Structures are given as structure tokens and as C-alpha cells.
TrEMBL record:
InterPro entries: E_motif (IPR046848), PPR_At4g14850-like_plant (IPR046960), PPR_rpt (IPR002885), TPR-like_helical_dom_sf (IPR011990). This is Structure-specific endonuclease subunit SLX1. It comes from Vigna unguiculata (Cowpea). Gene3D superfamilies: Tetratricopeptide repeat domain (1.25.40.10). PPR repeats lie at residues 174-204, 272-306, 373-407.
Amino acid sequence: MSKAGQSLKWVLLDLIHKSNDLRSFKQIHAHLLTSALVANDLVVSKAANFLGKHVTDVHYPCNFLKQFDWNLSSFPCNLMISGYASGHLPWLAILICRWTVRNGFVPDVYTILAVLKSCAKFYGIVEVKQFHSVAFKTGLWCDIYVQNSFVHVYCISGDTVGAGKVFDDMLVRDVVSWTGLISGYVKAGLFNEAIALFLRMDVEPNVATFVSILGACGKLGCLNLGKGIHGLGLKCLYGKELVVCNAVLDMYMKCESATDARQMFDEIPEKDIISWTSMISGLVQCQYPSESLDLFCQMQDSGFEPDGVILTSVLSACASLGLLDYGRWVHQYIDECRIKWDVHIGTTLVDMYAKCGCIDMAQRIFSGMPSRNIRTWNAYIGGLAINGHGREALKLFEDLIESGAKPNEVTFLAVFTACCHSGLVSEGRKYFNEMSSPLYNLSPLLEHYGCMVDLLCRAGLVEEAGELIKTMPMPPDVQIIGALLSACNTYGNVGFTQEILKSLQNFEFQDSGIYVLLSNLYATNKKWADVRNVRRLMKQKGISKAPGSSIIRVDGKSHEFLVGDSSHPYSEDIYVLLNILANQIYSEGHINTLC
């Protein structure tokens, strides 16, 4: 090509690059035809990219392709299909491919790869299966790149069964084959299948393999396996890669091993925003809010600018610690830095203000949110509940139902909390019955039963609470038994104590408070034999009360009794005698203070 031709080619290429509508491209197309540059590979590439981004009608690109002899080269057709696959309307690549095939074009490996790229972008599982048949009939199926692409696109489209069949039919598999199916299983939530496949691998894993399988370990809480994979990554020399380090850090946090996560974090030489995000949010989820705020300060000192994800975690930490001023500063920072609000930031702000007692501000943010999800509703209903606004919480629940949102288990837990804090017994019964009705079809969990038992016990309905406990499909926990015992003690009802004593024998309660409550209840009712039975049961189960002291002031003199030391040979008798003495003194009216 002459210098003039070269110069014209570069001018036209620059014009194609700058063109932003079909009209101007048609003028450039005319120059390409008159200059015989239309067949140039670089020109075709630029034209295909332009058409894929700007032309939504397949007729023009199809007419553009008629200029080429497809028997000489498949490059123009493949490039046009690939251009549309990379554009905003990837399904047009399928239409163009079908048109070219109807007009005599014979697809090759690159055609299949371009089409599958298009299918992956719009999850076209039907088209994937069609081209799977085409690849099989034309013999293109035997290419390992085609096979790996089918594994990938089946997984992307949500058909892990189809991906597994393709994988099983492969005679030769490389690390891309294994990693494609493992990552597909992880994305589909099939974590056990992903781990089982990883353990079958007969090739050395790569970085993507480690990232996927560490994610599966974190989701399942498989700490020991995760540690083993961490060690394997170090052995394969991938353990120092930043993306692998971040995956290891996230795995440890999801397995609630904050110590290992912090060690991993400290060993990362150059941290990125993902490292800081994983560590800070992980500490909040593992109930270390104070440590997460300290780390947040370190991050700012390191020169990193926090994003919305980190600030959401920081606000959750503020809510856990009741740090209203800190939370207000974060709110102000979000506004001043113009960080884009989303439903997650708004929900966390509602939760923070509500838990810090600033319910007016929580209401203002809730009302101003353009979109809400169920977590937003739960945060505000729960905030109203814990701040004593039971009626308002129930009204908001009705608003939730009217809005078309579907309540979940957390929603009902907030509703029961509102009833409990405000003494709304009849309302609590009503919503508890509705929860498992066909209207909501939700099964009450242990926490829901706990709230209802607490509600009934606070209202003095001890017998009803006891009957509710009998209907529970799971054994009661320490909180439920404790609430019932406290109510029995308050209202002088000892009718359930023998049943509770039997349940303590059957269940592995290790909390000494339950046994002490029951023992005190027996002592109050002068059932000293039962007091001894409870203390013996504690000794049999190896449960001991932390040593403490009781001070009784009689006629101006203080008498201190050390109790709860299970190592003392007479601690049980001392405890019983102390209860006898306390009751005797109380009945005679000599007691001034009993601690």
C-alpha cells in the first residue's frame, strides 16, 4: 500500500473511532468502498466495534458483511459477531450469526467462542444449548477452548447440571476446566460440591481456583479445610498474591476466626481497599465493634479513602456500641464527600440512630429513602420496639404489609419485641398465630418462642407460658427457662418447677444462673430437699457458680457470707443455711439490706 493509501487508512480509522452515529459512519463506509480499504483487517475490526456499540438494527451490519468472501476468511463475520457480543445488545450477535449461517457461512472455533460470550452476557441458556448441538455436529466440540467456554457459560446461566455433563464428557481437562466448574458451583451456592470437586483435581490449581474454593470454605465455616488450602496456596507460591490473601482473610472472618484473620491481615505487605473492607466488616460481624473502629482509624491514617461498604460496617459498629456522636460524624462524612446513598447505607443509618435512641432521626431517614428493602423495614420496626414505641412499631408493620413487601422471620421478631416491651399480650398472640398461617407461612424459631414466653411471663401468665414451652418443636434454651423461673419467683408460682428440674436433667445447660434461680425459688418456698437436689445436680454436671459474697445487715452490723465456691466441701450446706437464715431474718423484720 502506498504512503497516500496508508495515510488515508489512518484518517478513516480515526474518523470511525470518533464517529457516534450511523449517518456519519455511512459516509466513512462510502470512502472505504471507493478506496478498497474495506477489506483491511484493522478497518473491519474498527467497523465491527462501532456497529456493535451504536447500531441496533441487524440489517446494516449484515449488508456490510456481504462485501466479503466468507470462503476466503471467517475473520470479518467472527469480528462482527464478537463486536456485538461485547456491545450493549449482545443478543444481536446471535441474530447476525444465524443470518450468516443461513447464507452459507461455516462457523469455526472463534465463531462459537464469540457466540458463547454473547450468551453469557444475557444468560441465554436456550441459545447455549442450540450452539452446543451445532458445535457437536460440526466437530468443533473437540476443541478444549470450546469445551471450557461451554462449562463457563452453562455455569453463568445457572445450569450447573449442564456444566457438569460437559465437564464429565471432556477427555482432557486443564486447570481452566476444573476452575470453571468449581467457581460455577460456588456461585450457585453448591459449596459442598465445589469442595468435593477441588479434592478430585489432578492438576495444580491456579489463583482463581484458590479464590473460589476459599470462598466455599468460608460459606460453610470449614476452618480446618480453609487452613489446609491456605497452606497449599503457600506451597504453590500463590499464597502471597494479594487476591489470594484477601480471599484467605475473608475465609477466616467468615469462619469467625478473628485471630487468624488479623494475622493474615498484618502479613499482607501492600493492602488494598478490599483488604481493609474484609477486615473491618469481618470484625463487626464477629462482634468486635470496638476493634473495627480502631482499624478504621488506622485505615484513614494509611491514606485510604473509605467507601460506602466500609462506612456501612462502621455505622453497624457504632450501633453496637451506642456511639451516637461517632455515627453522626460518619453520616456527615457521607454527605460531605458525596458518597452515593444506597439502600444499604440508608438502612444502616436507620439502625444506628434507632439503637442509639435517636428515633426521630431514624424516622426522618426512613421517610426520606426513595427505596426500601425488608431490612430497612426491620431496622425501623426493631428500633421503635426497643425504644418503647410498641404501638407505632405495630402500625409500621401494617404499613409494610400494605406496601406489598413480604415480612420475614426478623420482621416478626421485631414485632414480638415491640409487644414484649409494651406489654401488648393480645397483639402478640395474634401475630404469633398469624406467623405460621398460610398468609405468611413462616415457622417460628427459638427466638420467636423466647419473645412470646417473655411477653407472657412479664404479664404474669406463667401457666400459659409453660404450655407454650411444651408445644415448642425444639428444646428451650437458657433464656426461655430463665424467663419462666423469674416469673415463677415473682408471682409465687412453683407449679412448673418439677418439670423444669426434669428438663435440667435431660438437657446440657451449662449456665449456672438457671440452677441458682431454681434453687432460690425452692428456698423461697422452703423446699429445702429440692434445693439440695438442684445443688447435687449442679455437682453431677460439673457446673459451678462463680464465687461471690452476700452481705446481710442485721441490727446495724454487717455479716458477710462467702457462697458459690464449689471447691469448698461444705459449700452446699452453707448455701442452704444462708437461705434459711435469710428467710428467718426477713420474717422477723430485722433485715435492712440484703445484697
